[in-house]
Amino acid sequence: MAVTCSARGCSAEAVWSLLWNNPRLHTPDRRKSWLACADHRETLGGFLAARGFLRDTVALADLAPGDVGERGERPPERRNT
Predict the structure, then answer these.
(1) d(CA 57, CA 80)
(2) Coil, strand or helix: which one is 61?
(3) Is the backbone of residue 63 left (phi > 0), alpha (psi -120 to 50) or beta?
(4) Per-residue pLDDT tens digits for 30-50
(5) 76 located within any domain
(6) What is the rounded distance in angstroms from the CA atom of residue 33 to the CA atom of residue 75?
(7) Cβ atoms within 10 A of the Cβ of 11, count?
């Protein structure tokens, strides 16, 4: 079963897993995951990196089965202020 990109409105197949954690909320060894297609790898990674959350980017093909949930997690909603 294919997994889809976590970017809002994107239904492309994910090929990357962006591993992250929020150090104020998570233990150092905890990793959450956003999935990304080739087109959204940089934008999702940039969002996480700007906040100091991005820990690693791994090709989905290199992960063991079960390392990432079926759809990953969705990024937070953008607020227009």
Answers:
(1) 28
(2) helix
(3) beta
(4) 889 999 999 999 999 999 999
(5) no
(6) 10
(7) 9
Residue pair 45/33 in contact by the 8 Å Cβ criterion: no
- Residue 7 inside a domain? The answer is no
* CA 54 – CA 22 distance, rounded (Å): 9
Give the total number of structural domains in the chain.
Answer: 1
Report the C-alpha gap between 75 and 50 in whole angstroms: 14
Host domain of residue 44 = 16-62
**6 falls within a domain:** no
- Full-prediction pTM beyond 0.85? no
Q: Are 23 and 52 in contact (CB under 8 A)?
A: yes
